[in-house]
Amino acid sequence: MQQGFPKDFLWGASSSAFQIEGGWDEGGKGKTVADFNSFKRSDKQADSKVASDFYHHWKEDIALMAELGLKVYRFSISWARIVPDGDGEVNPEGIAFYDQVIDELIAKGIQPFVTLYHFDLPYALVDKYNGWADRRCALAFERYARICFEHFGDRVKYWQTINEQNLMIRVDERMNIYVDDPLEADRLRAQMDYHIFLGNALASVACHELVPGGKIGPAVSSTCTYPLTNRPEDVWAARMNDYLKTGYALEMYRYGSYSDLYMRYLEERDIVPKAFLGDEEILKAGVLDYLAVNYYRTLCASALPADEEHPAGSRVYRGNEVDFDQYGWCRDERNENLEASEYGAQIDPMGLRIVLNDYYMRCRVPMIITENGLGAPDTLGADGSVHDPYRIDYLRQHIEACELALGDGVPLMGYSPWSAVDLLSSHQGFRKRYGFIYVDQNDQQTGTLDRYPKDSFHWYKKVIATNGADLA
Questions:
Q1: pTM, rounded to two decimals
Q2: Domains of the chain, with CATH numbers?
């Protein structure tokens, strides 16, 4: 089995367009759902109008990435910067912006790793079609993907289709779901989910057609759920929590169809999505070349029986809309054996090893971690220093888990943590920071936007230089 990290291991860092770029209405860019949601919170925190201002600082940021020694930079293209209204005219200024970013990365020896869609649907498609509720949105995504492959595919060989579809679909505001009846909301959710799978498959087929040697796959928000007790009912609840939130999506990405179990779940709740003749062939043709894994925490669950007041399959939210309970299936619980970050994510490096092994057994394709990190309220010192030993400790433990998974036989091809530079957190603005590079920005958006490498920057630089041999 693998000893240490392979010599061609892709050490990287990640970001997303709406959280880093700013320039939200510059260069012909259209408004996105992510913009719409961030503007709603602008009285409480920073929004996406400026964010980390990568749109004007891209050259400086890439120079810092090169100093860090990154082998790969995983970032997203904003669909609305390429096609402002989602399915109309192509914006040449958007093409030119990403051309210069990609060219600069390559000039600095950094491989571009591009995500096509990271929570930022062009808002015009909401006005036209209610977004992913309409099949035409999947076709618009295919067209946008083809535009990107045609313009950038000569230089970009690794592509991600959709970031965290399995999490995004559970968050109403990211899907623009505003329906009072919970069952009707879930019926709409299931249809949107299906159309995203269809768009993913169409884009995957297009990549293989248009990008010689190109590799394409989705990124999943990983779940690893432990049973609250060793009662068989709790063990089943934990497995179903993972299955309903991640496992069903892995099956669709790998095999191009829903399993009998998931179809039973949809049928029992009367939320089976509408499909067209010929979809099955599209879905089966668009399977993944690799799987990207985003990992931040593990979960815990107990059995939640159905009762007369809450029919089997109905949901109840306790605290957040991502980790919902589901009557007849599972109840979200707190794992008392784990510590949590300041923002509630339970810290569990062993869970990463479990996830990597589990997903490889399911999919049998190469894997890469495209998000993993610790959000914390870092402090900039008067001398420009940022001391973040807590982040170094977190990353060290998770890199060690990656090495263990490699030893288990998992073909892990890279580690690209969140995030390259500090960026806009969807619900905590700039109070919650992940980056190796501190960005002087705040929730009043009055910062200088100057960049300062943190202690974790210098530590990770050493990790990369030694190919993971020196984690001290």
A1: 0.94
A2: 10-465 (3.20.20.80)
